[in-house]
Amino acid sequence: MSDTRVQKFAKVLVEHSARIVPGDRVLIEATTAAEPLVRELFIQIMEKGGHPHPMVALPGMMPFSQDEFYLTYANDAQLDFVPTFYKLAYNEFESRIRIHSSTNTRGTTNIDPVKSQRRGKAISGITEAQMRRGGEGKFKWVTTLYPTDAYAQDAGMSLKDYEDFVFGAVHAHEDDPIAYWNSTAAGQQKAIDFLAGKDVVTLRGPNVDLTLSIKGRIFKNSTGMYNMPDGEIFTGPVEDSLNGWVKYTYPAIYGGVAVEGAELTFNRGRVQRATAEKNEAYLIKMLESDEGSRRVGEFAIGTNFDINKFTGNILFDEKIGGTFHMALGAGYPETGSKNKSAIHWDMICDLRTDSEITVDGELFYKNGEFVFDK
Q1: Residue 368 carries which DSSP code?
Q2: Selection from 17, 27, 20, 28 nearest residue 46 by Cα
Q3: Is 232 strand, coil or helix?
Q4: Smallest Cα–Cα separation from 38: which of 71, 13, 63?
Q5: How far apart are CA 327 and CA 201, in angstroms?
Q6: What is the sign, positive or negative, of the torsion defined by CA atoms of 164, 67, 340, 264?
Q7: Which residues, 6 or more positions from 87, have their beta carbon under 8 angstroms from its beta carbon?
Q8: What Cα–Cα distance (Å) separates residue 253 from each residue in 215, 225, 314?
Q9: In angstroms, how far is CA 78 from the centroid of its own chain?
């Protein structure tokens, strides 16, 4: 018996996130572990008059991702190879739906970070096309996740409980999940309107003492167009404006490697000093990816209080209500960010205790809640 939540999940992705219309060519990226959702997406895209192109691989074998099998067996020429079909789709298609569906989230833990770095550089042009064409409104991309045993184990849940968590976070259990996501936009827009035309953002708390500028930058209201689940407001800070330090309160996971206790010190926008309690060498290596990897491409505040625990998956964790996150590396051009890099590494810090954000000297956010004068 099929789970009706999968049908509603697909409906959200097709109608709300990717906004499929007749003629859209849609790349579906997934592993075989996400078969129920891939099948439902295929059906619903067809019903909308679109052209689904499933790119479904065995777990660990997706050539575009930095997956276990590819990184393990690739020689230098293969690490540098740009996947032909992905390059074509990202540059020419109207839409892309990516479904994270790993069955082993730690498969790349012992991979040489130099290989991950080299592979990241090779496919950076595909990522750049996604961000550029997405910002231009020519490429409707969305990233999501299908629950697997591996993700459930990372979250410390049974598979059933994790399925309930995932479907609950995307509101696929409701009669009209699209109505929910539309309703979240209004509340977040009030915060964005307050930030319009502002300059200096200051974050202070037990784990952060940082200033940055948002002058001339655009905050985006994130309610399911690029990520599902969603719930954040984000921008690209002025590249040379960050000064101060932040200690991230959750593990920063990238390429299957968990860096714990990461602490970064910024000077004129660049990471001047980086330490970590675990996997510090990996952090340093990724910071050496290119010129843009030591700068921040994204500054965001998480607003989704339905995601109330850390699960080890950035798609969910960066949206935790009461946190902020910054991404080292590539920024989103539609925010005004000029930072380019082969990496985009989100790192999360809790602001729910003795913490505040001021904007041009005015209190904007305190202990996990917006407190500006609405």
Answers
A1: T
A2: 20
A3: strand
A4: 13
A5: 16
A6: positive
A7: 125, 126, 129
A8: 30, 23, 7
A9: 26
Give pLDDT tens digits for 215-260: 999 999 999 999 999 999 999 999 999 999 999 999 999 887 899 9
What is the bridge-based pairing of β-strands 208-213 and 243-247? antiparallel
Report the pLDDT value the prediction gives residue 147, as an integer from 0 to 100.
97
What is the C-alpha separation between 11 and 223, in angstroms, rounded?
Answer: 15
Fold assignment, 4-175: Thermophilic metalloprotease-like (3.40.1830)
Can you read off the two tokens belonging to residue 201?
């953002």
Which helix or strand (DSSP H or E) is residue 220 part of? strand 220-222
49-103 tens-digit pLDDT: 999 999 999 988 876 766 788 889 999 999 999 999 999 999 999 999 999 999 9
Q: What is the distance between the alpha carbons of residues 322 and 169, in angstroms, rounded to a whole number?
A: 16
| Single-letter amino acid code for the residue at 229 | P
Burial of residue 374, with CB atoms counted within 10 A of its CB: 0-12 exposed, 13-18 middle, 19 or more buried: exposed
CA proximity to 64, closest of 38, 46, 45, 82: 82
CA–CA gap between residue 147 and residue 133 (Å, rounded): 29
Expressed in angstroms, the distance from the first to the final Cα of the chain is: 48
Q: Residue 290, class by beta-carbon neighbours within 10 Å (0-12 exposed, 13-18 middle, 19+ buried)?
A: middle
Q: Where in the chain is the domain with CATH 3.40.1830.10?
A: 4-175
